[in-house]
Amino acid sequence: MSTHVMQLPQFRKLDPLSRRALEAARRAAAPSPIYVVGGYVRDLLLGQGNVDIDLVVEGDAIAAAKRLAHFLRAVMTSHPRFGTAHLRLPGACPRRRSGSRTLDLATARSERYPHAAALPEVQPAPLLADLLRRDFSINAMAARIDRHRFGPLIDPLEGLRDLERGRIRVLHERSFIDDPTRLFRTARFEGRYRFVIARGTLRLMKAAVKGGVIRHLTGSRIFRELYLIAKEPSASRIIRRLGDLDVLTAIHPKLALPAAAFGLLERVGRILTQASSMPLLEGAAEDEVLLLGMLYLLHPRTVVAILTRLTPPQGIAEKLAADHKACRQAVQKLTRAIDLRQSRIARLLDPLSPEARIVLLAGLVKGSAQEAVSEYLATSWSVVPLLKGGDLGRLGFQPGPIYRRILAALRSAKLDGRLRTKEDETSFVLQRVAQGVTIQ
Length: 440
Description:
By secondary structure, this protein is α+β, with helices and mostly antiparallel strands. The chain has 21 helices and 12 strands. Helix 7 runs parallel beside helix 9 and helix 16 (about 340-350) packs across helix 18. It is elongated, with a radius of gyration of 27 Å. Belongs to the tRNA nucleotidyltransferase/poly(A) polymerase family.
C-alpha cells in the first residue's frame, strides 16, 4: 500500500463541528483504528465542503456508532446487514450544502455481487480491501484519525493523481455491471467537478448501457440517483450527458428528452438562483423543480408511465404528476391568451405550487406572457385590498363566504389598476351590489 505526503488540512483548519465529531469518532472506535474515507477525503483534498463525513472502522462500526451517537447526542440509523450506521447531528439540515452535519460509519469490508445490479454481500476485511471495492479511484483514499490530526493519506489506487488531473476512473471491468447506479454517479461527478471521464471508463459505461444493465435496477434506485442529480447546480449538464449516453432511454424508451428540454432546465437553474427574491417562489424544493423541468415537455401519459417505472415515494409521484398537468395547462392558457391582465395571471399562478411556478416561468421563453408573469412574481403578488372584513361588516354584509368573494373581486380590480384608494374600493363594492352584479 503506497502513501503520499499528507495534503489534507490540519484539524485546526476544519470547522468546529467537524473537529468535535472526528475527535469523538476516534474515541468511540478505540481501540480499533478509524479512518476518514471516500467522498469526504476527496472533497477535503479539493478544498470543498461536504455535508457528510464518511468513516471506516477496522472493527465493529455499529458499536462505535452507538457510542458516538451518545457522545454527540445524534440520531442513529443502523443497517446490520451491511455493517453500517448513519448519524444525524442535532440541528442538521438535510438540504444544507456546506458544513458537515451527518456521519456515515461502516465496518471495513469486502463485497461480492451475486448478479448484476444486486445489493452486495459483504464481510469484514482490512482497510485495503475496503478501498479496492469502491467505485472510483478518487473515492478510494483514506486517512487514519489520530489524536487531533490526520495520519498520512492512504492511496493504493492513485486516486490523488486522478484528482489532480481531474479524471474519473473506475477500478475494475465489471464496475457498472455489478452496480449500474455508478453510471449516474459518474455523470454526476463529471458535471459537479468539471472532470473528464477516463477513456477506458467511458468505454465500459457505453458497453454496460448497450448490454441492458439498467433494466436490472429497481425504479426506486434509479429515482434516488435522479433525485441526487437534481440537487446538483449542474443538473442540466448532467442530465444532458445521461441523454447522450442513452441512459435516459434505457430507463424508459419514452424518456427521450428533446433538445429544448435542456434549455428549459438551464433556465430553471437560473430562476432558482433568484427564487429567494421572489416570495411566491421561496421554499421551492430544488430537486423537485429539476425533476419537474425534466418531465415538462413530455406528454402527461408519458409522465405517468415514467413515474410508474421510477416508483418514487407516493407523495412525490402524485405531486409531480399534478404539478406537471397544472403547469402545462397554465402555460397553454398563457401562450394563447390575449387578456394578460395581472388579475388573470393571479388566477392562473396562485393555485400552483412554488415548483410549478418556476417551471412555468422557465417554459415561457420570451414575449408578453413571460413579462406579465415576471411582473406578477416580482411585485403584483403583494397587492391586497385596503378594505378588510370589519369594513365589509360596517357596509352591512353578514360574515360568510361572500367576504371571500368580495375581497377576491377587489383584489382583481386592484391588480388591474382600477382601484387605488379605500374610497374607490368602497364605491366598487356598493355599485356592484346596487347594480345587482354577483360578486365572485
